[in-house]
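Researcher: We are triaging several targets before committing to wet-lab work. For this one, the compound of interest is 2-acetamido-2-deoxy-beta-D-glucopyranose. I'm pasting the protein sequence and the ligand SMILES. What I need is the predicted three-dimensional arrangement of the protein with the ligand bound, expressed as structure tokens, so it can go straight into our comparison scripts without reformatting.
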Amino acid sequence: MASSFSTKLVFFACCFLLFTFSDKLVAGQSDKVQLNLYYESLCPGCQQFIINTLVEFFDSDLDTITDVNFVPFGNAELSDNQTIICQHGEEECKLNKIEACIITTYPDPKLQYSFIRCVENYTEDWESSCFNGAADDINTCYNSDLSTKLMLGYANQTLSLNPEHEFVPWVTVNSGPLYDNFSELVSRVCNSYQGTAPLPTQCNSTALAERKGWSKLQVSYANEATNY
Ligand SMILES: *[C@@H]1O[C@H](CO)[C@@H](O)[C@H](O)[C@H]1NC(C)=O
Ligand SMILES: *[C@@H]1O[C@H](CO)[C@@H](O)[C@H](O)[C@H]1NC(C)=O
Ligand SMILES: *[C@@H]1O[C@H](CO)[C@@H](O)[C@H](O)[C@H]1NC(C)=O
Ligand SMILES: *[C@@H]1O[C@H](CO)[C@@H](O)[C@H](O)[C@H]1NC(C)=O
Ligand SMILES: *[C@@H]1O[C@H](CO)[C@@H](O)[C@H](O)[C@H]1NC(C)=O
């Protein structure tokens, strides 16, 4: 009797652990909503989106259901010899690369975002403003082949989009484009979540209704002439 009870107990303990563990595993592989941001560093609408809109995903519990993936290539072009030509010139190419290096150097999403947000806010003195002048890891990456490889990867991701992006910032939620309905971003993310975690309060109807007034962003079209 006693032994059968303890067998059951062991069985129960085993399977309870297994369940909790496999639950975590699934969460680890990410059942989160994939929010991809295709952008370029010097486009004003991208800066606005990164600084003012995306902050909500990192300052609230929305990050429990969302993975934000930055793809810093935007409207750049890839020439036949694999040279990247940026819409807003060399400076934009440089900052895109710096941000590609930030993404690879800081896998922690919050840290990654806070550096990218800072660089977008201080495009001229990012090194002193965001890294206290000590951006050694980032500069090492920038000056190595790694940054070029990363950029070609982002070029590939952007140029493989189906449907193609029309402007930046271009946002996809689980691969579906948001077009310019930026005020629907949070509700799209909330509605797309298929995982088991409880929905954050930002997904409640009152919270979503408050976003209806979000203003339009000044987007940069892919075929727009560069003014720099
Ligand atoms: C690559 O192509 C670009 C644009 O067509 C050109 O400006 C550049 O000189 C080329 N670079 C090399 C190394 O051929
Ligand atoms: C952006 O820069 C301004 C100064 O130009 C500063 O007042 C503001 O706090 C900065 N915001 C962020 C998010 O870094
Ligand atoms: C992206 O890379 C894949 C794999 O290397 C390649 O098959 C594909 O043609 C590339 N797509 C574009 C648009 O460059
Ligand atoms: C989003 O915006 C596009 C173009 O502005 C529009 O055609 C579409 O109906 C909007 N709504 C959704 C849910 O995509
Ligand atoms: C819904 O969201 C609003 C705004 O974030 C919050 O003040 C409120 O407490 C939330 N309500 C519920 C029931 O979670």
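Researcher: Any quick observations?
Model: DSSP finds ten helices and eight strands in the chain.
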